[in-house]
Automatic annotation (TrEMBL):
Organism, scientific name: Seonamhaeicola sediminis
InterPro entries, per the entry: Ald_DH/histidinol_DH, Ald_DH_C, Ald_DH_CS_CYS, Ald_DH_CS_GLU, Ald_DH_N, Aldehyde_DH_dom, Aldehyde_DH_NAD(P)
Name used for this protein in its record: Aldehyde dehydrogenase
GO cellular component, one term: cytoplasm
Record-annotated Aldehyde dehydrogenase domain positions: 6-428
Membership in a protein family: Belongs to the aldehyde dehydrogenase family.
Active site residues according to the UniProt entry: 210, 244
Keywords: NAD, Oxidoreductase
Amino acid sequence: MSNIHNILSKQKAFFSTQKTKDVTYRLELLKALKSEILSKEKAIYKALKEDFNKSEFESFISEFGLVVSELNLVIKNLKKWAKPKRVKASLLTFPSKDYIYKNPYGNVLVIGPWNYPFLLTMEPLIMAVASGNTVVLKPSELTQKTSSLIAEIIANVFPKEVATVCQGDKDISTQLLAQKWDYIFFTGSAKVGTIVAKAAAKYLTPITLELGGKSPCIVDDTTDLKLTARRIVWGKFLNGGQTCIAADYLIVKKNIKEVFIEMLKKEIIRAYGNNPKRSKDFPRIIDKKNTERLAKALNNVDVIFGGEIDIENKYIAPTLVDSPNLDSQLMTDEIFGPILPILHYKTEKDIENIIWNSEKPLAFYIFSKNISFVENTLKKFEFGGGAVNDLLIHFGNPKLPFGGVGSSGMGTYHGKHGFNTFSHEKSIVKRGTWIDPPARYAPYGFKKLNIIKKLFKWFG
Ligand code: NAD
Protein backbone atom coordinates (compact mmCIF):
# COMPACT_ATOMS: atom_id res chain seq x y z
CA MET A 1 0.00 0.00 0.00
CA SER A 2 1.50 3.38 -1.00
CA ASN A 3 2.21 5.97 1.66
CA ILE A 4 -0.50 8.30 0.32
CA HIS A 5 -3.08 5.53 0.24
CA ASN A 6 -2.07 4.61 3.77
CA ILE A 7 -2.51 8.18 5.05
CA LEU A 8 -5.89 8.54 3.40
CA SER A 9 -7.08 5.19 4.77
CA LYS A 10 -6.17 6.32 8.28
CA GLN A 11 -7.95 9.64 7.78
CA LYS A 12 -11.04 7.83 6.45
CA ALA A 13 -11.05 5.52 9.46
CA PHE A 14 -10.64 8.47 11.82
CA PHE A 15 -13.41 10.47 10.17
CA SER A 16 -15.77 7.56 10.63
CA THR A 17 -15.12 7.59 14.40
CA GLN A 18 -17.16 10.86 14.45
CA LYS A 19 -14.49 12.58 16.55
CA THR A 20 -14.17 15.53 14.13
CA LYS A 21 -17.91 16.20 14.44
CA ASP A 22 -17.20 17.38 17.98
CA VAL A 23 -16.88 21.17 17.80
CA THR A 24 -14.98 21.29 21.09
CA TYR A 25 -12.34 18.96 19.62
CA ARG A 26 -12.02 21.16 16.53
CA LEU A 27 -11.63 24.24 18.73
CA GLU A 28 -8.88 22.54 20.75
CA LEU A 29 -6.99 21.81 17.52
CA LEU A 30 -7.43 25.34 16.18
CA LYS A 31 -6.29 26.91 19.45
CA ALA A 32 -3.23 24.63 19.47
CA LEU A 33 -2.54 25.62 15.87
CA LYS A 34 -2.76 29.30 16.78
CA SER A 35 -0.27 29.01 19.63
CA GLU A 36 2.12 26.94 17.45
CA ILE A 37 1.95 29.56 14.67
CA LEU A 38 2.47 32.42 17.14
CA SER A 39 5.51 30.64 18.56
CA LYS A 40 6.94 30.24 15.03
CA GLU A 41 6.40 33.84 13.91
CA LYS A 42 10.09 34.66 13.37
CA ALA A 43 10.75 31.31 11.71
CA ILE A 44 7.91 31.98 9.25
CA TYR A 45 9.40 35.37 8.27
CA LYS A 46 12.84 33.78 7.89
CA ALA A 47 11.52 31.02 5.63
CA LEU A 48 9.69 33.50 3.39
CA LYS A 49 12.80 35.70 3.22
CA GLU A 50 14.93 32.72 2.21
CA ASP A 51 12.41 31.49 -0.33
CA PHE A 52 12.07 34.74 -2.26
CA ASN A 53 13.42 37.69 -0.30
CA LYS A 54 10.03 38.63 1.09
CA SER A 55 10.32 41.40 3.69
CA GLU A 56 9.06 40.92 7.24
CA PHE A 57 6.55 43.73 6.69
CA GLU A 58 4.99 42.10 3.62
CA SER A 59 5.15 38.68 5.27
CA PHE A 60 3.19 40.06 8.21
CA ILE A 61 0.49 41.95 6.30
CA SER A 62 -0.04 39.44 3.53
CA GLU A 63 0.56 36.08 5.23
CA PHE A 64 1.12 35.78 8.98
CA GLY A 65 -1.30 38.55 10.07
CA LEU A 66 -4.11 37.29 7.82
CA VAL A 67 -3.72 33.68 9.02
CA VAL A 68 -3.81 34.71 12.69
CA SER A 69 -6.87 36.94 12.06
CA GLU A 70 -8.65 34.08 10.34
CA LEU A 71 -7.85 31.79 13.28
CA ASN A 72 -9.14 34.38 15.75
CA LEU A 73 -12.33 34.78 13.72
CA VAL A 74 -13.03 31.08 13.48
CA ILE A 75 -12.19 30.38 17.14
CA LYS A 76 -14.62 33.13 18.16
CA ASN A 77 -17.46 32.07 15.86
CA LEU A 78 -17.16 28.35 15.29
CA LYS A 79 -19.80 27.26 17.78
CA LYS A 80 -22.30 29.65 16.20
CA TRP A 81 -21.42 28.72 12.60
CA ALA A 82 -21.59 24.98 13.28
CA LYS A 83 -25.02 25.04 14.94
CA PRO A 84 -27.97 23.74 12.91
CA LYS A 85 -29.83 26.77 11.56
CA ARG A 86 -33.61 26.81 11.90
CA VAL A 87 -35.53 28.05 8.85
CA LYS A 88 -39.26 28.69 8.40
CA ALA A 89 -41.46 25.77 7.45
CA SER A 90 -43.09 25.91 4.02
CA LEU A 91 -46.61 25.03 2.94
CA LEU A 92 -45.46 21.56 2.03
CA THR A 93 -43.53 20.87 5.22
CA PHE A 94 -45.88 22.60 7.71
CA PRO A 95 -46.35 21.73 10.55
CA SER A 96 -42.64 21.05 11.11
CA LYS A 97 -39.33 22.35 12.41
CA ASP A 98 -36.98 22.84 9.45
CA TYR A 99 -33.20 23.03 9.76
CA ILE A 100 -29.97 23.34 7.83
CA TYR A 101 -27.27 21.13 9.36
CA LYS A 102 -23.63 21.93 8.55
CA ASN A 103 -21.85 18.65 7.95
CA PRO A 104 -18.19 18.12 7.05
CA TYR A 105 -17.56 16.51 3.66
CA GLY A 106 -15.02 14.09 5.08
CA ASN A 107 -11.49 13.76 3.71
CA VAL A 108 -10.23 16.93 2.07
CA LEU A 109 -7.22 17.48 -0.20
CA VAL A 110 -5.73 21.01 -0.29
CA ILE A 111 -3.15 21.85 -2.98
CA GLY A 112 -1.40 25.21 -2.63
CA PRO A 113 0.65 27.60 -4.79
CA TRP A 114 4.01 29.23 -4.09
CA ASN A 115 3.18 32.93 -4.23
CA TYR A 116 1.67 33.34 -0.74
CA PRO A 117 2.84 29.93 0.42
CA PHE A 118 1.87 30.27 4.08
CA LEU A 119 -1.47 32.07 3.72
CA LEU A 120 -2.85 30.10 0.80
CA THR A 121 -2.23 26.73 2.40
CA MET A 122 -3.02 27.53 6.03
CA GLU A 123 -6.27 29.36 5.41
CA PRO A 124 -8.03 26.51 3.57
CA LEU A 125 -6.58 24.03 6.06
CA ILE A 126 -7.96 26.05 9.00
CA MET A 127 -11.43 26.23 7.47
CA ALA A 128 -11.44 22.57 6.45
CA VAL A 129 -10.55 21.52 10.02
CA ALA A 130 -13.03 24.04 11.48
CA SER A 131 -15.78 22.41 9.40
CA GLY A 132 -14.85 18.99 10.81
CA ASN A 133 -12.93 17.49 7.87
CA THR A 134 -9.60 15.71 7.83
CA VAL A 135 -6.96 17.28 5.58
CA VAL A 136 -4.02 16.28 3.44
CA LEU A 137 -2.15 19.43 2.43
CA LYS A 138 0.24 19.61 -0.53
CA PRO A 139 2.17 22.91 -0.45
CA SER A 140 4.27 24.12 -3.39
CA GLU A 141 7.64 22.56 -4.12
CA LEU A 142 9.00 25.98 -5.13
CA THR A 143 9.01 27.38 -1.59
CA GLN A 144 11.05 24.68 0.11
CA LYS A 145 11.72 26.51 3.36
CA THR A 146 8.14 27.63 3.95
CA SER A 147 6.67 24.29 2.89
CA SER A 148 8.96 22.40 5.29
CA LEU A 149 8.04 24.77 8.10
CA ILE A 150 4.35 24.26 7.36
CA ALA A 151 4.90 20.48 7.54
CA GLU A 152 6.60 20.91 10.93
CA ILE A 153 3.80 23.14 12.28
CA ILE A 154 1.08 20.72 11.18
CA ALA A 155 2.96 17.70 12.56
CA ASN A 156 3.38 19.46 15.92
CA VAL A 157 -0.34 20.20 16.22
CA PHE A 158 -2.39 17.55 14.45
CA PRO A 159 -2.54 13.79 14.73
CA LYS A 160 -1.72 12.50 11.21
CA GLU A 161 -5.19 11.08 10.87
CA VAL A 162 -6.65 14.60 11.21
CA ALA A 163 -4.21 16.68 9.14
CA THR A 164 -0.89 16.03 7.52
CA VAL A 165 1.39 17.49 4.85
CA CYS A 166 2.63 15.69 1.74
CA GLN A 167 5.54 17.60 0.27
CA GLY A 168 6.64 17.25 -3.32
CA ASP A 169 6.12 18.36 -6.89
CA LYS A 170 3.53 17.52 -9.51
CA ASP A 171 4.26 13.78 -9.23
CA ILE A 172 3.02 13.80 -5.64
CA SER A 173 0.11 15.99 -6.70
CA THR A 174 -0.77 13.48 -9.41
CA GLN A 175 -0.67 10.60 -6.93
CA LEU A 176 -2.83 12.56 -4.50
CA LEU A 177 -5.32 13.46 -7.21
CA ALA A 178 -5.66 9.80 -8.17
CA GLN A 179 -7.25 9.07 -4.76
CA LYS A 180 -10.93 9.41 -3.93
CA TRP A 181 -11.43 12.56 -1.84
CA ASP A 182 -14.62 14.05 -0.47
CA TYR A 183 -13.52 17.59 -1.38
CA ILE A 184 -10.57 19.13 -3.25
CA PHE A 185 -9.49 22.73 -2.71
CA PHE A 186 -6.93 23.88 -5.27
CA THR A 187 -5.12 27.22 -5.61
CA GLY A 188 -2.89 27.73 -8.63
CA SER A 189 -2.90 28.17 -12.39
CA ALA A 190 -5.86 27.59 -14.70
CA LYS A 191 -3.76 25.00 -16.56
CA VAL A 192 -3.33 22.82 -13.46
CA GLY A 193 -6.89 23.71 -12.36
CA THR A 194 -8.11 21.85 -15.45
CA ILE A 195 -6.08 18.78 -14.44
CA VAL A 196 -7.57 18.96 -10.93
CA ALA A 197 -11.12 19.27 -12.31
CA LYS A 198 -10.60 16.23 -14.55
CA ALA A 199 -9.26 14.14 -11.65
CA ALA A 200 -12.17 15.23 -9.45
CA ALA A 201 -14.70 14.39 -12.16
CA LYS A 202 -13.72 10.70 -11.98
CA TYR A 203 -15.28 10.42 -8.51
CA LEU A 204 -17.70 13.38 -8.81
CA THR A 205 -15.70 15.08 -6.06
CA PRO A 206 -16.78 18.66 -5.34
CA ILE A 207 -14.01 21.22 -5.83
CA THR A 208 -13.03 24.79 -5.23
CA LEU A 209 -10.62 26.21 -7.81
CA GLU A 210 -8.83 29.42 -6.86
CA LEU A 211 -7.12 30.37 -10.12
CA GLY A 212 -5.69 33.48 -11.75
CA GLY A 213 -6.11 35.55 -14.89
CA LYS A 214 -5.52 38.97 -16.36
CA SER A 215 -6.99 41.47 -13.91
CA PRO A 216 -7.50 44.92 -15.43
CA CYS A 217 -7.23 48.27 -13.71
CA ILE A 218 -8.97 51.29 -15.24
CA VAL A 219 -7.83 54.83 -14.42
CA ASP A 220 -10.00 57.71 -15.61
CA ASP A 221 -9.32 61.44 -15.60
CA THR A 222 -11.50 62.29 -12.58
CA THR A 223 -9.31 60.47 -10.06
CA ASP A 224 -6.63 61.85 -7.76
CA LEU A 225 -3.66 60.86 -9.90
CA LYS A 226 -0.95 61.03 -7.26
CA LEU A 227 -2.83 58.85 -4.77
CA THR A 228 -3.87 56.49 -7.58
CA ALA A 229 -0.24 56.07 -8.68
CA ARG A 230 0.82 55.38 -5.10
CA ARG A 231 -1.88 52.75 -4.54
CA ILE A 232 -1.25 51.05 -7.88
CA VAL A 233 2.51 50.85 -7.32
CA TRP A 234 1.90 49.34 -3.89
CA GLY A 235 -0.65 46.76 -5.09
CA LYS A 236 1.17 45.84 -8.28
CA PHE A 237 4.70 45.44 -6.93
CA LEU A 238 3.85 43.90 -3.55
CA ASN A 239 5.30 40.37 -3.50
CA GLY A 240 7.26 41.30 -6.65
CA GLY A 241 4.02 41.41 -8.65
CA GLN A 242 3.46 37.71 -7.92
CA THR A 243 -0.08 38.19 -6.60
CA CYS A 244 -3.09 36.50 -8.17
CA ILE A 245 -5.19 39.64 -7.65
CA ALA A 246 -2.53 42.18 -8.66
CA ALA A 247 -3.54 44.55 -11.45
CA ASP A 248 -2.19 42.71 -14.48
CA TYR A 249 -2.32 45.82 -16.69
CA LEU A 250 -3.64 49.39 -16.70
CA ILE A 251 -6.13 51.02 -19.03
CA VAL A 252 -5.65 54.77 -18.61
CA LYS A 253 -7.73 57.60 -20.11
CA LYS A 254 -5.65 58.89 -23.02
CA ASN A 255 -5.62 62.56 -21.99
CA ILE A 256 -3.86 61.83 -18.66
CA LYS A 257 -1.65 58.93 -19.71
CA GLU A 258 1.66 60.76 -20.09
CA VAL A 259 1.38 62.66 -16.81
CA PHE A 260 0.19 59.51 -15.02
CA ILE A 261 3.17 57.50 -16.25
CA GLU A 262 5.50 60.11 -14.75
CA MET A 263 3.69 59.75 -11.42
CA LEU A 264 4.03 55.96 -11.52
CA LYS A 265 7.78 56.31 -12.12
CA LYS A 266 8.11 58.70 -9.17
CA GLU A 267 6.18 56.34 -6.91
CA ILE A 268 8.29 53.33 -7.88
CA ILE A 269 11.46 55.30 -7.03
CA ARG A 270 9.91 56.51 -3.78
CA ALA A 271 9.05 52.93 -2.77
CA TYR A 272 12.15 51.02 -3.91
CA GLY A 273 14.81 53.68 -4.63
CA ASN A 274 16.75 54.22 -7.86
CA ASN A 275 18.09 50.69 -7.70
CA PRO A 276 15.28 48.38 -6.52
CA LYS A 277 17.75 45.48 -6.61
CA ARG A 278 19.25 46.90 -3.45
CA SER A 279 15.89 47.46 -1.75
CA LYS A 280 15.31 45.05 1.11
CA ASP A 281 11.60 45.44 0.48
CA PHE A 282 11.53 44.24 -3.12
CA PRO A 283 11.10 40.46 -3.49
CA ARG A 284 12.72 38.22 -6.08
CA ILE A 285 11.00 36.10 -8.70
CA ILE A 286 10.32 32.65 -7.28
CA ASP A 287 12.68 30.72 -9.59
CA LYS A 288 14.82 30.96 -12.71
CA LYS A 289 12.15 29.46 -14.95
CA ASN A 290 9.66 32.20 -14.05
CA THR A 291 12.37 34.88 -14.37
CA GLU A 292 13.13 33.63 -17.89
CA ARG A 293 9.42 33.62 -18.72
CA LEU A 294 9.12 37.26 -17.65
CA ALA A 295 12.33 38.24 -19.45
CA LYS A 296 10.94 36.72 -22.66
CA ALA A 297 7.75 38.75 -22.29
CA LEU A 298 9.86 41.91 -22.40
CA ASN A 299 11.24 41.11 -25.87
CA ASN A 300 9.99 43.45 -28.59
CA VAL A 301 7.88 45.67 -26.34
CA ASP A 302 8.30 49.36 -25.49
CA VAL A 303 9.89 49.38 -21.99
CA ILE A 304 9.56 52.93 -20.67
CA PHE A 305 10.85 52.34 -17.12
CA GLY A 306 12.85 49.63 -15.36
CA GLY A 307 13.45 46.60 -17.54
CA GLU A 308 16.61 45.39 -15.77
CA ILE A 309 16.86 41.61 -15.77
CA ASP A 310 19.26 39.38 -13.83
CA ILE A 311 18.25 35.78 -14.41
CA GLU A 312 20.95 34.32 -12.14
CA ASN A 313 19.67 36.36 -9.18
CA LYS A 314 16.01 35.93 -10.16
CA TYR A 315 15.58 39.67 -10.40
CA ILE A 316 13.30 41.71 -12.63
CA ALA A 317 13.08 45.43 -11.86
CA PRO A 318 9.68 47.09 -11.44
CA THR A 319 8.96 47.73 -15.12
CA LEU A 320 6.50 49.84 -17.10
CA VAL A 321 5.64 48.93 -20.69
CA ASP A 322 3.81 51.27 -23.04
CA SER A 323 0.90 49.93 -25.12
CA PRO A 324 1.93 46.33 -25.92
CA ASN A 325 -0.07 44.63 -28.70
CA LEU A 326 -3.11 42.74 -27.52
CA ASP A 327 -1.68 39.60 -29.12
CA SER A 328 1.74 39.92 -27.42
CA GLN A 329 2.75 37.48 -24.62
CA LEU A 330 2.34 40.35 -22.14
CA MET A 331 -1.31 40.75 -23.06
CA THR A 332 -2.33 37.15 -23.64
CA ASP A 333 -0.76 35.39 -20.61
CA GLU A 334 -1.14 36.27 -16.93
CA ILE A 335 2.00 38.33 -16.14
CA PHE A 336 2.51 37.33 -12.49
CA GLY A 337 5.60 39.48 -12.03
CA PRO A 338 6.70 43.13 -11.64
CA ILE A 339 5.82 44.22 -15.18
CA LEU A 340 2.99 46.69 -15.71
CA PRO A 341 1.69 47.29 -19.25
CA ILE A 342 -0.09 50.62 -19.70
CA LEU A 343 -2.78 50.78 -22.34
CA HIS A 344 -5.10 53.69 -23.00
CA TYR A 345 -8.70 54.37 -23.93
CA LYS A 346 -10.77 57.19 -25.32
CA THR A 347 -14.20 55.56 -25.27
CA GLU A 348 -15.88 52.84 -23.24
CA LYS A 349 -15.82 50.69 -26.37
CA ASP A 350 -11.99 50.79 -26.22
CA ILE A 351 -12.16 49.41 -22.65
CA GLU A 352 -14.48 46.61 -23.76
CA ASN A 353 -12.16 45.67 -26.64
CA ILE A 354 -9.23 45.31 -24.28
CA ILE A 355 -10.96 43.51 -21.41
CA TRP A 356 -13.00 41.16 -23.58
CA ASN A 357 -9.77 40.12 -25.27
CA SER A 358 -9.09 37.91 -22.19
CA GLU A 359 -11.04 35.39 -20.13
CA LYS A 360 -13.02 36.50 -17.05
CA PRO A 361 -10.41 37.85 -14.59
CA LEU A 362 -10.02 37.11 -10.89
CA ALA A 363 -9.90 40.80 -9.90
CA PHE A 364 -11.00 44.12 -11.34
CA TYR A 365 -10.07 47.64 -10.35
CA ILE A 366 -11.32 51.07 -11.26
CA PHE A 367 -10.02 54.45 -10.12
CA SER A 368 -12.59 57.15 -10.75
CA LYS A 369 -14.82 59.69 -9.02
CA ASN A 370 -17.47 59.29 -11.70
CA ILE A 371 -20.11 57.26 -9.87
CA SER A 372 -22.20 56.24 -12.88
CA PHE A 373 -19.08 55.21 -14.85
CA VAL A 374 -17.95 53.12 -11.89
CA GLU A 375 -21.34 51.42 -11.40
CA ASN A 376 -21.88 50.72 -15.12
CA THR A 377 -18.39 49.30 -15.46
CA LEU A 378 -18.68 47.07 -12.37
CA LYS A 379 -21.96 45.67 -13.72
CA LYS A 380 -20.77 45.27 -17.32
CA PHE A 381 -17.77 43.01 -16.79
CA GLU A 382 -17.60 39.54 -15.27
CA PHE A 383 -14.82 39.02 -12.70
CA GLY A 384 -14.21 37.36 -9.33
CA GLY A 385 -14.18 40.48 -7.13
CA GLY A 386 -12.49 43.82 -6.96
CA ALA A 387 -12.09 47.30 -5.54
CA VAL A 388 -12.85 50.88 -6.43
CA ASN A 389 -10.01 53.37 -5.92
CA ASP A 390 -7.62 50.77 -4.51
CA LEU A 391 -5.98 47.43 -5.24
CA LEU A 392 -6.10 44.08 -3.41
CA ILE A 393 -7.99 45.23 -0.33
CA HIS A 394 -11.17 43.24 -1.01
CA PHE A 395 -9.08 40.20 -0.03
CA GLY A 396 -8.81 41.62 3.49
CA ASN A 397 -12.47 41.56 4.51
CA PRO A 398 -13.48 38.05 5.66
CA LYS A 399 -17.14 39.05 5.32
CA LEU A 400 -16.60 39.18 1.53
CA PRO A 401 -16.50 35.84 -0.31
CA PHE A 402 -13.24 35.51 -2.24
CA GLY A 403 -12.99 33.55 -5.49
CA GLY A 404 -12.99 33.64 -9.26
CA VAL A 405 -15.49 33.07 -12.02
CA GLY A 406 -15.12 31.19 -15.29
CA SER A 407 -11.45 30.52 -15.96
CA SER A 408 -10.39 32.47 -12.85
CA GLY A 409 -11.98 29.83 -10.66
CA MET A 410 -15.07 28.47 -8.98
CA GLY A 411 -16.21 28.58 -5.37
CA THR A 412 -15.27 31.02 -2.63
CA TYR A 413 -13.77 31.15 0.84
CA HIS A 414 -12.67 33.53 3.65
CA GLY A 415 -14.25 33.74 7.07
CA LYS A 416 -17.66 32.11 7.28
CA HIS A 417 -17.65 31.62 3.50
CA GLY A 418 -14.66 29.32 4.02
CA PHE A 419 -16.47 27.38 6.73
CA ASN A 420 -19.46 26.99 4.40
CA THR A 421 -17.24 25.89 1.50
CA PHE A 422 -16.00 22.91 3.50
CA SER A 423 -19.47 22.06 4.88
CA HIS A 424 -22.26 20.23 3.19
CA GLU A 425 -25.64 21.76 4.02
CA LYS A 426 -28.05 19.01 5.01
CA SER A 427 -31.71 19.92 4.84
CA ILE A 428 -33.69 18.35 7.67
CA VAL A 429 -37.42 18.55 8.27
CA LYS A 430 -38.59 17.36 11.68
CA ARG A 431 -42.27 16.52 11.83
CA GLY A 432 -44.45 15.58 14.73
CA THR A 433 -47.01 12.81 14.66
CA TRP A 434 -49.79 14.64 16.49
CA ILE A 435 -51.46 15.85 13.29
CA ASP A 436 -51.67 14.25 9.86
CA PRO A 437 -53.84 16.18 7.36
CA PRO A 438 -55.33 13.56 5.02
CA ALA A 439 -55.41 15.78 1.89
CA ARG A 440 -52.21 14.41 0.35
CA TYR A 441 -53.14 10.77 0.50
CA ALA A 442 -54.85 8.78 -2.24
CA PRO A 443 -57.60 8.39 -3.17
CA TYR A 444 -57.33 12.04 -4.29
CA GLY A 445 -60.41 13.33 -6.11
CA PHE A 446 -61.47 16.90 -7.04
CA LYS A 447 -62.35 17.96 -3.52
CA LYS A 448 -58.84 17.29 -2.24
CA LEU A 449 -57.28 18.92 -5.30
CA ASN A 450 -59.32 22.07 -4.71
CA ILE A 451 -58.20 22.22 -1.08
CA ILE A 452 -54.55 21.82 -2.13
CA LYS A 453 -54.90 24.49 -4.87
CA LYS A 454 -56.37 26.94 -2.34
CA LEU A 455 -53.53 26.25 0.09
CA PHE A 456 -50.93 26.89 -2.62
CA LYS A 457 -52.68 30.17 -3.45
CA TRP A 458 -52.79 31.34 0.18
CA PHE A 459 -49.21 30.41 1.05
CA GLY A 460 -47.60 30.88 -2.39
P1 NAD B 1 0.63 25.93 -10.36
O1 NAD B 1 -0.71 25.65 -10.93
O2 NAD B 1 1.81 25.74 -11.23
O3 NAD B 1 0.90 25.04 -9.06
C1 NAD B 1 -0.03 24.97 -8.00
C2 NAD B 1 0.10 23.64 -7.32
O4 NAD B 1 -0.19 22.61 -8.25
C3 NAD B 1 1.51 23.34 -6.78
O5 NAD B 1 1.39 22.76 -5.49
C4 NAD B 1 2.08 22.35 -7.78
O6 NAD B 1 2.98 21.43 -7.21
C5 NAD B 1 0.85 21.64 -8.29
N1 NAD B 1 1.01 21.18 -9.67
C6 NAD B 1 1.79 21.73 -10.64
N2 NAD B 1 1.67 21.04 -11.79
C7 NAD B 1 0.79 20.04 -11.54
C8 NAD B 1 0.26 18.99 -12.34
N3 NAD B 1 0.58 18.84 -13.62
N4 NAD B 1 -0.62 18.14 -11.76
C9 NAD B 1 -0.99 18.29 -10.47
N5 NAD B 1 -0.50 19.25 -9.67
C10 NAD B 1 0.38 20.13 -10.19
O7 NAD B 1 0.53 27.42 -9.80
P2 NAD B 1 1.65 28.30 -9.11
O8 NAD B 1 2.69 28.59 -10.15
O9 NAD B 1 2.06 27.70 -7.83
O10 NAD B 1 0.84 29.64 -8.77
C11 NAD B 1 0.61 30.61 -9.72
C12 NAD B 1 -0.82 30.60 -10.23
O11 NAD B 1 -1.71 30.51 -9.14
C13 NAD B 1 -1.18 31.90 -10.92
O12 NAD B 1 -1.97 31.61 -12.05
C14 NAD B 1 -2.00 32.66 -9.89
O13 NAD B 1 -2.87 33.61 -10.41
C15 NAD B 1 -2.71 31.54 -9.23
N6 NAD B 1 -3.09 31.91 -7.87
C16 NAD B 1 -4.41 32.07 -7.58
C17 NAD B 1 -4.78 32.45 -6.31
C18 NAD B 1 -6.23 32.64 -5.93
O14 NAD B 1 -6.49 32.79 -4.74
N7 NAD B 1 -7.17 32.62 -6.85
C19 NAD B 1 -3.83 32.67 -5.34
C20 NAD B 1 -2.50 32.50 -5.67
C21 NAD B 1 -2.13 32.10 -6.94
